[in-house]
Automatic annotation (TrEMBL):
GO terms for cellular component: cytoplasm. Keywords: Amino-acid biosynthesis, Cytoplasm, Diaminopimelate biosynthesis, Lysine biosynthesis, NAD, NADP, Oxidoreductase. The lineage of its organism: Archaea, Methanobacteriati, Methanobacteriota, Stenosarchaea group, Methanomicrobia. Pfam families: DapB_C (PF05173), DapB_N (PF01113). This is 4-hydroxy-tetrahydrodipicolinate reductase. Its main location: cytoplasm. HAMAP family: DapB.
């Protein structure tokens, strides 16, 4: 049985991760962390019934992980929180499934260094849905054929999202840039904006949009739009919990969803 802890247990994703953990075989909730609802039952906060797992303060993370015999922490919080908590998790010899987005290059290196230094394992992905990871592959292929076309990425999310552009939009831009040997990124456009050989990245925030990503390849007299739309956060939560099961048999190191999906 895999013992999984959830960090960000009171959040939109945290609650759904707990719901998915209790539904899946071979994995159980061993601990939960958040800034809010400390001491409350994580199952009751997630509205899935009492689980006898209290939400703990992140300040007690090292002790709680040890006492709860946690094997893996699933972290969907905010960049600075993940950057602070990941070294604590790695030093405790516990694996990590990271869904948080919006890392600076320094935060990303700090997390990866802690995992490597402690010989543990991490999966880091801006999007745990199967569809988005197929979408990345389609973008790679399309970019090869339409390398001369103008490329713009438009993403839309709910009005409570804390980072922009989304991690998925940034990964889409990286995938295309890597395929085409390097592109500049331009964020939004305003005023006179002559088109160079860059990828334009645009973020929209409104209402309860779960997550839309469109990549536009525009030529002189035609265009292709490749679009992924998430209908529910379950697309992300189920992928993250499957990843937490997968990690139990992985060699130490850093992985992405490509490894889990066998791409
Ligand atoms: N990879 C993927 O597939 C997906 C990634 N995401 C990413 O996951 C992250 C969370 O998204 P979402 O659930 O919507 O956000 P929420 O704001 O709903 O949830 C985040 C939770 O983390 C808590 N938190 C903040 N700081 C800490 C800390 N230091 N220690 C412990 N908990 C903390 C927040 O508390 P408080 O509210 O009090 O600050 C909140 O309860 C975002 O970065 C988002 O982009 C989201 C969906 C899919
Ligand atoms: O914050 C969200 O909601 C989401 N965040 C991820 C991102 O930034 O790419 C993934 C998904 O689009 C939902």
């Amino acid at each position: 049985m895999i013992n999984a802890a959830v960090t960000g247990a009171s959040g939109r994703m945290g609650k759904l991760l707990i719901e998915n953990i209790i539904k899946m075989e071979g994995i159980q909730l061993s601990a939960a962390f958040d800034l809010a609802n400390i001491g409350k039952d994580a199952g009751e906060v997630a509205q899935v019934g009492k689980l006898d797992v209290p939400i703990s303060d992140v300040a007690d993370m090292a002790t709680v992980l040890k006492e709860s015999k946690t094997n893996v922490v699933i972290d969907f919080t905010i960049a600075n929180a993940t950057a602070a908590n990941a070294p604590v998790v790695a030093e405790a010899g516990v694996d990590l499934v990271i869904g948080t987005t919006g890392f600076s290059p320094e935060q990303r290196s700090l997390i990866e260094d802690a995992v490597i230094k402690n010989n543990t394992t991490a999966i880091i992905s801006p999007n745990y849905s199967v569809g988005v990871n197929v979408f990345f592959k389609i973008l790679q292929e399309t970019a090869k054929y339409l390398s001369e076309y103008d490329i713009e990425i438009i993403e839309a999310h709910h009005n409570q999202k804390k980072d922009a552009p989304s991690g998925t939009a940034m990964r889409a831009a990286e995938v295309i840039s890597e395929t085409l040997g390097g592109k500049d990124f331009v964020y939004g456009r305003e005023g006179l904006a002559p088109r160079e050989k860059e990828i334009g990245i645009h973020a929209v925030r409104g209402g309860d949009i779960v997550g839309d990503h469109t990549v536009l390849f525009a030529g002189g007299s035609e265009r292709i739009e490749i679009k992924h739309q998430a209908h529910s956060r379950n697309a992300f939560a189920s992928g993250a919990v499957i990843s937490a099961i997968w990690i139990a048999n992985a060699e130490p190191g850093i992985y992405t969803m490509d490894d889990i999906l066998g791409f």
